[in-house]
Amino acid sequence: MMKVIIINKEEWTKGLERLYDSFRLFGPVKQDEFHNFRQLTKGELPDLKLLNTRLSAKSMVYPQSEKMFEFTLDENRDEHHILKEIRKDYSPQAVIGIRPCDARAFLLVKANFDTPENKDPYWIKSYESNTFIGYACNTPCPTCFCTTAGCGPFHEQGLDLLFVDAGDHYLLKILTQKGENLIIAAGWSSKEHSDDARQEMETLRRAAEEKITARISTDKLKDKKTTELFEALFWEEVAFACINCGTCTYVCPTCWCFDIQDETLGLSGIRMRNWDSCMYPLFTVHGSGHNPRSTKMQRVRQRFMHKLKYYVDKYGDGIQCVGCGRCIRHCPVNIDIRKVCDLMNNFEA
Amino acid sequence: MLAYIEKIKEISRRLLQEGNVDMVIGFRRGTVPMMNEPCFVKTPEDVDNLVWDSNCGINLANYLTNRQEKIGIVAKGCDSRNIVTHIIENKIKRDQLVIIGVPCKGMIDRHKIQAMFETEIEHVTELDDKITIKGVGFEKTLEKKDVLQDNCALCIHRNPVIHDELVGDLVDEQKNIDRYKDIRNIETLSPEEKWRYFDNLLSACIRCYACRNACPLCYCPTCFVDESRPQWVGKSIDPIDIRTFHFLRAYHCAGRCTDCGSCERACPMGIKVRLFTKKLEKDCLELFDWEAGMTLEKRPPLDTYRPDDPDDFIK
Amino acid sequence: MGIEPGRLHFSWISSAESTKFVDVVNDVTAGVKALGPNKTFLKTEAKVA
């Protein structure tokens, strides 16, 4: 059984300070009116007075723009026109304060970047360098629907440690060996675990789960015929308001698409990849100029079909969504995935 | 507001019943507080979906581009000015439209209001000029005038400039508004200070293009940042590329922007993108005595030539 | 946008005004040289992860 330990807040802070010696630390930091993850400078503490970060923790493993190779076009040099991998820092990093939804999202994304056939070295190396210290949600948002999206405010999958704020102390659950190692580095004593602490955490979990009232139904998605869902008449209405910006895909912890670009300056250059979005016409335009997804409706349909139907069918692991609610909160025109999911789940041809 | 909603429904129902339009474009109730969703209504039965309140900040002119149908469109002051611009720029024909004008007292700023509270807002209700916000453990009533979108607080054209129907009496226009205080402040900065100012301003940008796509002016079939043969701008989040996007987009809106605020409202990162377009708006007003979208009778300054155009910058 | 004023010039020169053309080009180059290389609005390698 996994251990739950009690850490008083003073010990917590001291422990975090000790971690700078063995980890690159990342955590939520408030910038203007919202929180985002970034690397903490020595002595800086994560700001845990947050609901959730504006952008997901996706970029901790998979940055929005990432260099992959460098090259030279200088033909006087032997290695000209040869792509050389760029050295990166994959030393251990710890993300403190990641919400359970974002941690579970990495497992969904793993289905794309780390498979028996295909391995994305950038994603895998970065992912493996991480220790995720999850921050359980005592105050979920009205737009959170994680409990019906295969996740939850105290969900443990994808985390190494899970902690919760219990007033004057934190409760910390150790979930993996990596988590155990971090505890040692922080100098927190894992001897003082107790059944009382476990009980207290359970009570908080139940209270948090009860606060989540937004729900989706996904039970019938798998049995729907893809072609019929594809041709459903509701897509025109769903897509009408959409302005085809990339907000939903960029704030989403489970959207993984990217585009590869070469940039040269004089005789030297780099190859990089950037997040891309199925909302953009350029995402699918062919070299010939033909675009198989030339209309807004087709692109909106693609996003929802991918998350709620193609993924369900292909991986057998539920929907490609963890219910973090970011796309709902930040969509400029109020397209709501919960509503679309219900339309799809209840669809009859 | 309720009177407005009834009137919008009544007019829309009549237009659809009489076959004067194929669809009405308006707003329906959103699924989260302070958000309504742009929608279309094609039958008299569906008219009851239409709503109006202080959460209709998205500019509906954006939904008219190149449409072929006959359309009834709900339009507040800024929307109507962008409809004028659309007509002038041949993006829609005047005789395709029945403009349902809405005299407007401003839209509330959902970003600003959410930032006042530590937990997510659950309910927002509106009565006259009071906004009541509710969430877990709090309830607060605010004066609407204190939480308007920045552009609405500075708006001097609240009434539709062009309309076929009106849903209520015209409202008083705001007088003695200093529209450009923030712009004048930036103008006084040295080049180095300006550089840093804009670096800061844009540091959160994720290039989602919500600002561009929420803008009724940005209807180019292929935006310059999306051109790939040749590619003009890098596609990463390099600060120079981000800056290039914002500045060029603003220039493309010169003499056309009505300061409807859709760009700023849409930005998921809370960037004050209107600072760019407003500078150009100010220049157009000072140099050419021009405000965009006020009349169908005059061509915009950037597509006409007059011998007395200012040319001090040419040496 | 933060570019030094002397870096950007606009001129109106007729094809018959060859001497004005020469003067303007000389002035512009001298002015820009005096400012030194552009250090701000300049992309070298993309500043990304």
Helix content of chain C: 25-40%
Q: Biggest interface and its residues per chain? A: A-B, 46 and 43 residues
Poorly predicted runs of chain C: none
> Beta-strand percentage of chain A?
15-25%
Structural class of chain C: mainly alpha
Mean pLDDT level of chain A: 95
Oligomeric state: heterotrimer
Helix content of chain A: 25-40%
Mind explaining what this structure looks like?
- The complex is a heterotrimer of chains A (349), B (315) and C (49).
- With 349 residues, chain A is of the alpha/beta class.
- Helix content of chain A is 32%, strand content 19%.
- Chain A is built from 11 helices and 11 strands.
- In chain A, α1 crosses α4 and α7 packs across α9.
- In chain B, strands 1, 2, 3, 4, 5 and 9 form a 6-stranded mixed β-sheet that branches.
- In chain B, β6 and β7 form a beta hairpin.
- The mean pLDDT of chain B is 96.
- Chain C is mainly α and 49 residues long.
- The relative contact order of chain C is 0.22.
- Chains in contact: A-B, A-C, B-C.
- Chains A and B meet through α8, β10 and α10 of A and β2, α7 and α9 of B.
Please give a quick description of this structure.
The complex is a heterotrimer of chains A (349), B (315) and C (49). With 349 residues, chain A is α/β, with parallel strands linked by helices.
Topology summary:
The complex is a heterotrimer of chains A (349), B (315) and C (49).
Chain A: E1 4-8, H1 9-19, E2 24-31, E3 34-39, E4 65-72, E5 84-85, E6 93-98, H2 100-113, H3 121-128, E7 130-135, E8 161-165, E9 169-174, H4 177-186, H5 195-211, H6 226-230, H7 234-240, H8 247-251, E10 258-265, E11 268-275, H9 296-315, H10 326-330, H11 337-345
Helix pairs in contact in A: 1-4, 7-9
Chain B: H1 2-17, E1 23-29, E2 36-41, E3 50-51, E4 71-75, H2 77-88, E5 97-101, H3 110-115, E6 121-127, E7 130-135, E8 138-143, H4 150-153, E9 165-166, H5 181-187, H6 191-202, H7 210-214, H8 239-252, H9 262-266, H10 274-288
Parallel strand pairs in B: 1-4, 4-5, 5-9
Antiparallel strand pairs in B: 1-2, 1-3, 6-7, 7-8
Chain C: H1 18-35
